[in-house]
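Homework help board

Subject: predicted structure for assignment chain

Our instructor gave us this sequence and asked us to write out the predicted structure in token form, then describe one feature. I got the tokens but I'm not sure how to describe them. Can anyone check?
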Amino acid sequence: MRSLVSDAWLFASGFLALVGFASGSVALVVIAAMIFCTGGAARLWARVSLEEVVYRRTLSERRVFVGETVQTTLILDNRKLLPVPWLELRETLPRGMPTVGVRTSPGSLPGSQVLERATSMGRRDHIEWPLTLRAVRRGYYRVGPTRLRSGDIFGFFEREEETGRPVDGITVYPLTYTLPELGLDSARPFGDHRGGNRIHEDPSRVVGVRDYQPGDPMKRIDWYATARSNRLQSRLYEPSREQSVILALNIPTFEYSWQGADPILLERGVAVAASIARWSVDTGASLGLIANGSFADADRTIRIGAGRRPDRLSRVLEALAMITSFTTSNMAGDLEDPAYPLPAGATIVLVAAIVPEELAATLARLRAHGHFVTVVKTTRAEWPDNLGGIPVVSVAEAMEVLEADADRAPTRDGLDAPDAPVTPVPPAALAVGA
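My token output:
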């Protein structure tokens, strides 16, 4: 039907020409010729209207904290000699990052909003639209794609195309707090480590072999060396004093997945995990992260190996920013995955709203293997006594106060803003590691 309407000028000019020739009317023939020429010119103009019209966007930041803003510029260039009589732009923006002082409309994609702009462009014209996006909650947000629509000067024909790819991503880091704000002792938040700076063997650094001794675990046996020497050989590991903190975030907030998720407990767990990650880097520990969620556009478990690289904190915060209520695996299996062994003697800090029996058994085994294990409880709900002697610290009461303070915070530009208790990580701390 649309093609019939768009080709009406052809039928009209052809019909008038036939009638004109049949009746000998020169006027009808002239009118038919004018309609044909006008329609053809309009069709051609619409076809080339978006040719050499280049759209791009710039973002001042790709990683921000809650409460900060991202300055965005939408740029259009008409690089041809033919003017563009009218042009409409529809930019897709994340609903989680409201625009400041600009009205938008709901988008067709979930969690999106659309910014519309209309203009005309002369030959070799250049237009810029500045835009401010405010980060009001943590997450990973996409800007784009963009649709451009234009046509001929008469409005007879239109052309529309999608541009603005690849889609730009913005990461909003989660809120972080100091450990005293969470009710934890910043000097010894997870208890004393007897013996001070412990010496342990690092299984990732093999320095040799020796004869097998009774009591050596099977995983220590070097079967290649055993085959060569025709007697059991055990690996010798290099001693290490490096303190490793493995931060484990158990995402589920209810026992069964069909029960859904508690958004308050989910956000609380992410904020607590981010705060502990910040403390770990500040104290010079080797930091790693395990979370049974997934990265954006991926279905693999979030796992960042322990390390002290300068970008460690930013990588961990970025991963925490992407967490949703969707889980991809079981935390018990993630902690004991043989493909990703934990550093020897690592301190394991589990942040959780629930600890199922299977996970509790895993924590007990890890503790028996020489790891320090602490559970950070994010809910006031009573837990079954299944953790044995594993220490449990609760941050629910302190977090409720901080969350209430954030809810009472004043608004700027009509949007929520974080209050004083929220302590963002200085940008320098993300670039300089221990």
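Reply (TA_rk): Your tokens look well-formed. For the description, you could write something like this. Confidence is low (pLDDT under 50) at residues 1-5, 192-199, 411-434. That's the kind of observation they're looking for.
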